[in-house]
Amino acid sequence: MKTTVLPAVLLSVLLAACAKPTARTSAAARAVAAVQDSIVGTVTYRERLALPPGAVLRVQLQDVSKQGAPATVVAETTVAAQGRPVPLTFALAYDTLRIDPTNTYAVQASIESEGQRLLANAAAYPVITRGNAKRVQMMLRRTAE
């Protein structure tokens, strides 16, 4: 009787031990599967404008799939202009798990200073899905004052 109880107890202990790591493992597997990728590009403008010393370039990856609804921000980065001439370069990292291959994504860029938007893109710059690249060359225009 002792020999049949011991294997049963060991088996139940092993099953219990395996059950807890499975929940952790799936979370760990999701974390590992969260692959970072990036969109790289340049931003320029035609206006004869010297950027103020504190100007920053703000770039967002947006899900623009829903017509008539506000875009959902998937990722964002800010780059200090630091008096550099255009074109300004950027690399926008994003989590690939947040990308739905059936959705449409676009990059939005603006140059801001002291909370005011000075320049922004007027045209759409689609990226990632539907055959679009992950490299963009963006043209910004002066915003209405």
From TrEMBL:
Q: InterPro entries in the record, alphabetically?
A: Lipoprotein_YbaY-like (IPR053196), Pilotin (IPR039366)
Signal sequence region: 1-19
Taken from the record, one Pfam family name reads YscW
Keywords annotated in UniProt: Signal
Lineage: superkingdom: Bacteria
Supply the name of the protein: Lipo-like protein
Give the source species.
Hymenobacter jeollabukensis
